[in-house]
């Protein structure tokens, strides 16, 4: 059963910009989906439709098979189910302290004080930010702000978390830590949808990929299906993961008959297989 579905979605901004031109998208429960596409492709605009912040000009958005009605009561339900973490945490964090910020969402759900306090504590623990309760969010580093923004969404206990470029602006370790956190949340059953330009991380974490360009989905499939379509990758102004690029060069320039790999683990296995097949010496 799709937990989130978009059919033939068309959206124009009030100034007349055509941002989405007939999008079809589907997330099943437990998916970890990466949406890839060049700047201005329509990723953020699509995300704003996932929980009813924007209303389509044409088409339907369904959450747990129910089309969003855009009535206030329905929107509250939708926002309980679908949480969005914006690209810039400064757009999301506004309370004087971290704890107050995280409490804002659950308080709006009408939960009692004890439940709100419990959720704040649990969410801070989940993002590894215990002890930061009383810090003003603007004193935090970029990576810490992202974590707090994610905690604020987790405190609503959503079934789907949508994150607009969660690793943008983070150092490599910070980016890996955020992806690991999302992976763990996904393993706990939360459906995760991210947009990203970081193609190296995609095959490691995502089970499905959508390519978007000029407000249209140009391809969707597994990371392997997407990255083996060099034309689609080129048209989306993307590149192969670095490790796949190396294998491609070894195949093309050095005529090594190695199977393609999209993660370091896969590439390592394929390289070792190649060496074994060709009776090259490997330390056993
Ligand atoms: N508030 C707005 N008013 C008018 N046009 C807008 C508005 N926001 C976005 N757009 C336009 O809509 C199109 C899609 O933009 P969007 O921000 O969804 O792209 P994106 O794929 O998220 O890009 P990026 O990778 O740069 O974040 C672009 O042409 C953009 O200029």
TrEMBL record:
**InterPro entries recorded:** AAA+_ATPase (IPR003593), ABC_transporter-like_ATP-bd (IPR003439), ABC_transporter-like_CS (IPR017871), ABC_transpr_CbiO/EcfA_su (IPR015856), Co_trans_ATP-bd (IPR005876), ECF_ABC_transporter_ATP-bd (IPR050095), P-loop_NTPase (IPR027417)
Q: An example Gene Ontology cellular component term from the record?
A: ATP-binding cassette (ABC) transporter complex
Which terms are listed as keywords in the entry?
ATP-binding, Cell membrane, Membrane, Nucleotide-binding, Translocase, Transport
Give a GO molecular function annotation for the protein. ATPase-coupled transmembrane transporter activity
Query: Which family, according to the similarity comment?
Result: Belongs to the ABC transporter superfamily.
Q: Taxonomically, which superkingdom?
A: Archaea
Xref: Pfam families: ABC_tran
Q: Which SUPFAM superfamilies match?
A: P-loop containing nucleoside triphosphate hydrolases
Name the record gives this protein: ABC transporter ATP-binding protein
Where is it localised?
A: Cell membrane
Q: What are the recorded Gene Ontology BP terms?
A: cobalt ion transport
Highest classification ranks of the organism: Archaea, Methanobacteriati, Methanobacteriota, Methanomada group, Methanococci
Keyword Translocase appears in the UniProt entry: yes
Membrane topology recorded in Swiss-Prot or TrEMBL: Peripheral membrane protein
Residue span, ABC transporter domain? 4-239
């Amino acid at each position: 059963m799709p937990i989130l579905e978009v059919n033939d979605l068309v959206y124009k901004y009030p100034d007349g910009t055509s941002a989405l031109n007939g999008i079809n998208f589907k997330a099943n429960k437990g998916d970890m989906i990466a949406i890839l596409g060049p700047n201005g492709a329509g990723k953020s605009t699509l995300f704003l439709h996932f929980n009813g912040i924007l209303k389509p000009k044409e088409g339907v958005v369904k959450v747990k098979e129910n089309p969003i009605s855009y009535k206030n009561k329905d929107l509250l339900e939708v926002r309980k189910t679908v949480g969005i973490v914006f690209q810039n945490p400064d757009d999301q964090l506004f309370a004087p302290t971290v704890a107050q910020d995280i409490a804002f969402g659950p308080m709006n759900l009408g939960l009692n004080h004890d439940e709100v306090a419990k959720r704040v504590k649990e969410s801070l623990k989940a993002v590894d930010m215990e002890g930061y309760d009383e810090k003003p969010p603007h004193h935090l580093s970029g990576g810490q702000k992202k974590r707090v923004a994610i905690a604020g969404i987790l405190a609503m206990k959503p079934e789907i978390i949508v994150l607009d470029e969660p690793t943008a602006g983070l150092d490599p370790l910070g980016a890996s830590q955020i992806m690991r956190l999302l992976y763990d949340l996904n393993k706990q059953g939360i459906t995760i949808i991210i947009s990203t330009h970081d193609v190296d991380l995609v095959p490691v974490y995502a089970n499905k990929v959508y390519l978007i360009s000029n407000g249209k989905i140009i391809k969707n499939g597994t990371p392997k299906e997407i990255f083996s379509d060099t034309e689609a990758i080129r048209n989306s102004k993307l590149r192969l993961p670095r490790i796949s690029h190396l294998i491609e060069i070894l195949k093309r320039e050095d005529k090594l008959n190695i199977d393609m790999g999209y993660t370091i683990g896969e590439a390592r296995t394929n390289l070792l297989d190649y060496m074994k097949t060709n009776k090259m010496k490997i330390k056993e």
